[in-house]
Design a protein that fits this description.
Length: 817
Amino acid sequence: MSQQRSITDFFTKRRKPPTPPRAALISKTNRSPKKRDEPPTRVSASTDEASPVQTSPPPPKRARRRISETPQSDDDDDAWAPDGASPMLRRRSSHGMTTRPRNDEDDDEGLRRSSRARRRSSLLSAPTEHVKDDDLAMMCARRVKAPLKPVPYDVELIPKASRDLEGSILQRVDDRQKWAQDLPELVALCGEAAFRCQARLNEPKPATKHDPKPLMLEYLCDRLDVDDPLWGYQLRTSNEGWLQGFVTVTTFTTWAPYLRFDSHAAASGITADDVRDRAVDVDNVLGAALEAQPRRGDPDNEGVVFPTVAEISLLGGLGGGAAVLSIALDELPREYEYVVLQATEMGIPFYEALGFTRVGVVAQHATSTNCTIHAPEEGKESHASKVYRLRKNLRQLLRDLGKQDVNKVFQNAVDTSLVTDYLEIIKEPMDHSLLRTKLIAGDYNSLREFVQDHDLVWRNCTTYNPEGNPWHAAALLYRDRCARVIERWREKHPDLATFDGHSKKYTSQELADAADEDEDVMGLCVWSFPDTNVEDQYPCYLMALDLKKRRGEERKSGLRGWLERRASGASDHQEDDEDIVARRLQRSETWLPDWPRGVVPRGRGVAAKFLTGGNSCYLGYFEDKELASRAYDDAKSRYEHDIVAQAPVPSLNDAEWLNSIRQKRSKLLAAKSPPAPVERRARNLEANLASAQANDRLVAAAKHRYERTKKLYEQIVVVEDNKTPDYYFVHQYVPDCAWCRLVKLVARGTFDRGKRAGRTRWMLVPEGTQRDLDISAQRCFVVRSKMTADTDNADDEVWDVEDPRRAPMNDLFRSRR
C-alpha cells in the first residue's frame, strides 16, 4: 500500500529535514565512514564504479523538492530572477497523491537519477580540513570549494536596471575564474530578485499565490564548474559597480544515454493546459529540427554534445533582462542554429515574449545499479522494440566490460601525441569511449557487430605491444575476463544473442515508440541531488528558439526589409490575440487523446499538473491514471472560476527597440570595465542608524558571551553589520563555502506555562513577507536557543532565544533541544 501524503505539505511549507544521526547519513548517501584525509566517493548514476570526488553538502530547502531549474524572468522585465520551484496552489486535494515508498524491488533497481558529469577542474577547489565528516556525508557530488567572500554591499540597495541599460555597464566575461570569484554576488542577487518578483506578482492578491524560489548555491556551483565552454555577460551599475544581472551561455550537453526531442511524446510533460495557455511546439516542427541536429560524445564522461545547439544556462537580475539576453543571442557564433533553456514558471512569459517556444524532450534516466530490459511475453514485441532493447542492454554490457579493465587503460583513446607511431601500426583504433559513442549513435544492430568492435580493443593492444610486454599480458587477461562476461550476457539474453536488427526495416518513429515503453525514459529532468528520485519530479520546462529564423528576421527588419516584403508580395498581417486564443483552445481539446487531461506518464507511474491563471500546480506522482485524473478534477473544481484561456504575451522584440539595442551594443561592450563594487550597507542610511547601533550592541554581546562555532545549520544567529537587531534561523548552510541562507524570526506572544512562562515565543516570519538573507557565515554569530516545538515544517517551529545582553539562564538552555 502506497503511503498517502498531502502535496500541500510537500511544497507550500518551508520544509526543514532534521539532521539525522551519523549512521543515517552514511546509509542515505551510500557511503562508508572515511578518515578526514580521505576523499569521499560518489557512485555515478550511470555506472556501478565508485570514483573519488570531492563534494559539498546540499543546503536544506524550505520545500523538499530538491531541484533547481534555470532562468526566470517576467514579462514586465523586472526582477528577472531565476527561481527553483514552480508556484504552488495553496489549497489542493491530497486525494490519491502518493510518494512511492522504497521497497525491495527499488533496492535492486536503484533510484532513477539525473546526473551531470563532473569535469575534473581545479577551479574553486580547496582542502577539506574545514569540512566535518558529517557534512561530507550529506554532500552532493561536486568539488569542495574555498569559503566564499562576503558581498561588500547589501543587495536591497541595488537599483533596477532600465530597459535600455542607461546607467549600467555591460561586461563580457569569458574567464571561468572570474565567474567563480563573483559567485557570492550571483547567489545574493538571485535571492533579492526572487523576493522583488514575488512581492510584485502577489501585490494584486491573485487566487493562486506566486512563490518563486531563487537558484540554489549548489546549482550555480555545478553549472559554473561543468559548463564548457562558459561565457556570458554581467550587468553592473556604472557608479557603484554593483551587480544588476548576469547571463551565462554554453553548448547544450546531456549525460543521458538516450535523449529525444519530441513535443508529441506524452512523457515530455506537455499537457492540454500548456497548449491552451502557452506557446507550445504543437506541430513538433521545432522538436523535429532539434532532434535532427548532430550530436557526439560519451554520456559516461564528457557528455553528449550538440555542437549546433546553444544553451542559456544561467540568467538572473533586476531589470534589463530583455536587453542583456538579446545581446547574448546576437553574439552567439554562427555555427549555433538553435538555443535552448530551462525556464521556471515565472520566466515563461518573459521568454515567450522574446520568441521562445516550449518543446518536449524525453530522456533515459538510468538507474545506478542496472539498466537491463528483459524480454516481454512471446510474440508481443515489435522489431523496433527489440532493437531498442538490444541497444540498451548492450550499454549495460559495456559497463560490465569496463569493470574488467582494472588498470583503466582501455577507457579512452590512445594519446597519439605521446605515442607518435600508433596510427602507423593500428589502422582502426578502438576504446570504450568510442564504443559508447557508437552505441548512442545507434550504430549497433546486433551483438555480433558490437563484439567485433570490442575485440579491437584488446587486439590493438596485443598488436602494438609484442609478447613479453606487460601490456600485452594485460590485454590477454582482459580478453579472458571479457569473454566470460559476454558469455553470461548471452545466457541472460538468449533471444538477443542471435538477433540481427538488419533483418527487417524499421522507422525512427517505431524506435521512438519503443523507447516510450521503457520505464526509464521520462520527461527530461536536467539536474537533481544524488539521492533524489526523478520520478517524483515533473519534467523541466525546456524552451527553444530557432536562431536561423531570428537572424532572418533581423535582416528583414527596418525600411529595407519592408521594401523587400512589399516587392515579394508578403503580408505584414499578424494573427490577433483572439484568433490565437481560439486556435490554442481548439488544439488543447484534442491534445494527447489517450491520456486524461493534465496527466502524463512518469516512469512506473504517472504525474499530474494543473494550470490556472498563469500558475502551474504540480499535483504529484501517482500509481495510475485514475488517481491522477481525480486529483486534477479536484483541483479544477476548486479553481474553475480562474480557468480562463490566457492571451499571448506581448512581444518584447519590437523592431525599433531591437535596433536601438543593437546599435548600442558595440558602445556598451566597448565601455570601460566597471569599478570595483563600492562597500555600502543599508544600516548606514539615516533612517536605520538607531536600529543599526542596537544591532551592534547585540552582536557585541553575542561575541563576548558565546564561543564561535562553525556548526550553523538549524542554529539561531545574529548578523554583523545588519540594519536591525533581529534573530535569524539558519535555514541553509553550505559549510565548505561558509555560506548561509537566513530566515528572520519574529516574536509571537509568550509562553503561558512551565518554566518558560512569560518568555517570548519566536517563530519564522511568513514566507515572502521579509527578505531571506544570503550571506557569508563570517557575519553570523550563534546565540543560545531552544527549539520547544520541533516539526518537519520550519514555519511551525517555536523557539526560545536567550538574549545575550541579559543575564544567562543556564537552566533553560543546557542543551540545544
